[in-house]
Amino acid sequence: MLVIGILLLLSIGAGIYLYRLIFQPFILSETVYINIDRKRNYEKVVAQLKEEANLPSEQLFRMLAERMNYPNKVKSGRYAIESGMTMPDVIRRLRSGTQSPVNLTFNNIRIAENLAGRLSQQLMMDSLSLLSALNDPANAEKYGFDAYTFIAMFIPNTYQVYWDTSIDNLLSRMKREFDLFWDEERKGKAEKIGLTPLQVSTLASIVEEEATYADEYPVVAGLYLNRLYRGMRLEADPTVKFAMGNFGLRRILFSHLEIESPYNTYKISGLPPGPIRIPSIQAIEATLSPQQHRYLFMCAKEDLSGRHNFATTHAEHARNAAAYQRALNTRGIYH
Fold it and tell me: In CATH, what number does 21-96 get?
């Protein structure tokens, strides 16, 4: 009887020890995120848990995972492993596919290549495949845009998106966000200044490229609208830089102004066919609420601060331009 009693105590002790091991919580200083790609490799999941989440016991985890049939039910996605969770908690979360969304952000984007790169850094998405989708005219048409305006569908903000979302789902989400952004109030403001929402995005992109400081956005927007209303060409230097594919130009030469492009506003009348960057919400709002003034001309200030001198007459503008050219010459800036 004594032997049986001892064996029983040992069995109970072993069971308690095993129970404690199984339900030993993950001890983490902060939440860890495990990314499981489309290959859904179980061994890679275990390795991530060991390396990044201080897995209490690999042997027990594997035993539990087998019992809970997780190796056959690995799902792609981004999963939060929180301090205090037990191994069964983690397995249930992974097995059920209960993901934690990514806070997807993008701003200061000029061209589709930049956008594809930025988004693919945050999602389980190949940048080349995304770029191909962005450059596909059929895709643009599907969502109500064309090859020139498709990039305007992306309103810079923070969006909660699942890490393994597909390209089609992402594009559909961005279209929904575009439609929500362009509500009746904003559409009404656009109509008041005589532009469509896409034209507002195009003008806002020029405004944002032109003005270094946000407090100048409404002034610059008002100036370009004044020119449009008078049938004057915009003659916006950023559109020339875009046409040339060289945003680093500090000095626009007469030879640059001769480039043949639908974006060269020194040669075309009205707005270019689409945005020259993805405009920020701040630039769009400033364009929708432009400052009322009589300015028709602008030139960078001679102190090279990034701010502008504004003028109502060509003579005044010529003086401002001469001062700026002298400042460039003095500093040896010729291109």
Answer: 3.30.1490
Position with higher pLDDT, 22 vs 195: 195
Q: How confident is the model at residue 6 (pLDDT cuts 50, 70, 90)?
A: very low
pLDDT of residue 13: 46
The letter for the amino acid at 94 is L
The C-alpha angle 281, 245, 334, rounded to 5 degrees, equals 105
Q: Where are the domains of the chain?
A: 21-96, 103-181, 184-330
pTM of the model: 0.88
Task: Give the span between the Cα atoms of 77 and 124, in whole angstroms.
Answer: 8
Task: Write down the pLDDT at residue 334.
Answer: 63
Say which residue, 242 or 17, is predicted with more confidence: 242
Mean pLDDT (the chain, rounded): 92
pLDDT tens, position by position, 95-130: 999 999 999 999 999 999 999 999 999 999 999 999
Q: Give the up-direction half-sphere exposure of residue 128: CA atoms within 13 A in the CB hemisphere.
A: 0
- Taking residue 139's Cβ as centre, other Cβ atoms within 10 Å add up to 17
pLDDT confidence of residue 24: 83
Residue 12 pLDDT > 70, yes or no? no
Q: HEC profile for the chain?
A: CHHHHHHHHHHHHHHHHHHHHHCCCCCCCCCEEEEECCCCCHHHHHHHHHHHHCCCCHHHHHHHHHHCCCCCCCCCEEEEECCCCCHHHHHHHHHHCCCCCEEEECCCCCCHHHHHHHHHHHCCCCHHHHHHHHCCHHHHHHCCCCCCCHHHHCCCCEEEECCCCCHHHHHHHHHHHHHHHCCHHHHHHHHHCCCCHHHHHHHHHHHHHHCCCHHHHHHHHHHHHHHHHCCCCCCCHHHHHHHHCCCCCCCCCCCHHHCCCCCCCCCCCCCCCCCCCCCCHHHHHHHHCCCCCCCCEEEECCCCCCCEEEECCHHHHHHHHHHHHHHHHHCCCCC
